[in-house]
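hi support,

uploading two proteins for the ticket. first:
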Amino acid sequence: MNPNVFDDPRITAVGLLFEVHAGLSARFATQLDEHGLSAVEFEVLTRLTRSPGNQLRMTDLAAQTSLSTSGVTRVVDRMERDGLITRRACPSDRRSSYAVVTPAGLRRLDESLPGHLQLIEDWFTGQLDPAALHALLDGLRRVRDAVHPCATAGSSDTAPDEEPAPKTAESTRC
């Protein structure tokens, strides 16, 4: 085996990505726990709140979070018991239902968000100048769209500086 293969920048890039993810996840988990939320619950609340009408079809929520449909059902069940979200039947398809943020879910998100944003600023975006942040966001979106084409399923809106993902054979299955 060629010992220089481990100096490959592709291995370095993925390794750094994993290290950053692990470090940020640990900081986020501690802060979110102070508000009685897991990282998955925070992600669900955030994705629902950023979606039109503060709601998503359960299948779209599963696609956006990379959870299985049964995994989303378990999380939604737990969050519904805690009063953070509710389910609403889809008027046009009896087989589908929507997960909808409740006022209590919005309050919980509002309580946790300032500390969460401060951690993001301190440990992530604040480490980059505006040009580097823009380049990083562009690169992350391209990689996300390639490896997870359903990540924006059910969202009619994109972030203010984000272009909609191009339609591919894979994305039409979302």
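and the second one:
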Amino acid sequence: MCAYKRKTWIEKRDISNELKVEVIDKDFADMKKGEKMLVATPLIVDEYIRHIPKGKEGSLAQMRKDLAAEYHADKTCPITSGIFVRIVAEAAYEEYEKGKAISKIAPFWRIINEKSPAAKKLTFGTDFLLEQRRKEKLDKPTVK
């Protein structure tokens, strides 16, 4: 019998990984061979999201550009960036469920909208996400 205990999202976010900047040896996603690629960490992504001002919307693409510039890379890995945004969202929601105030959790709803690939994967669904986006007026009315 396996005694493996699954990590919580908070544990996955708070893992003490080091960021890496690597020169890639072949074209990958939107990156070309020879470019420097940043592989951030969940905590770096958490910190980035916490700096998105209330009522403002960020994007994964902009986060990737900003982090690459901050850490002297050409681009940020698109795969790990998406994974880390989800980890931050799940960890924030875990904290919220444990009683942490909304103002003290990472405001992931400022970077994930209902059309984001990450939104479809959230274990807690999208109701909380949509509610927080409505409260901050992040959803723009559709113009017909």
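thanks. also noticed: The helical segments are 9-14, 42-50, 60-70, 78-97, 117-121, 127-135.
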